[in-house]
Write a structure and sequence with these properties.
The protein is an alpha+beta fold. It has one domain. It is built from four helices and eight strands; from the N terminus they run ααββαββββββα. Helix 1 packs across helix 2 and helix 2 packs across helix 3.
Length: about 160
Amino acid sequence: MIPPSYPASRAAAILIHPHFARHPSDAPGIDTIEAIVDAAFWASLRREEGYVPRISLAFAAPDDVKRPLRFERPLPLTPESLTRVSLVVLRPGIHLGVWREQDELWVWGATRKLPAFSFVLEVLAPGLLVIKHSRSEESGKFVNVAVIEGDRIKVIDQGAAG
C-alpha cells in the first residue's frame, strides 16, 4: 500500500476514530480511516471524462451487506481506481464497498444497504469530504461525523446536534 500523502488524513483519522470505536460495528482503525481519507481526497481532485468524481465509500465487508454487487476482481484503494469507477456510482445511495484483505484495502464492489454504524466517506466536490455513519440497515439515513475541506477538519458535536 502506498503511504498516505495528504497531511490532513492522519489528523482526521485521529479525531474521527473515537466516534466509530464506541459503536458496535466493525470500526475501522486509525490507519484504515487515514488510507480511505487519503485516497478519496486525491480522487476528488482528478477528473474522469470531464466529470469531478462524486463517490461514497463505505467500510463494510461484502459478506455483511445485503445483495452486494461484487466486482469480478477487487480494485486497489487508489485515487486512480476510485476515479475510474466514479462514473458508475454517480447515483445517490450507491456506496463503493471497501474492506481489508491481507493487510491491503480493496474496493470489492457496490451496495445500497449498509450495516448500522458503518463508516461512510462521501466526496462532494474537489477537496470536500464528509464522513458519516449509517443509522440502521433499514433507514438509509446517515449521521454526519466530520467535514474535511482542504486542510480544515470540522468534527460535528453529536451532543449539540440533538
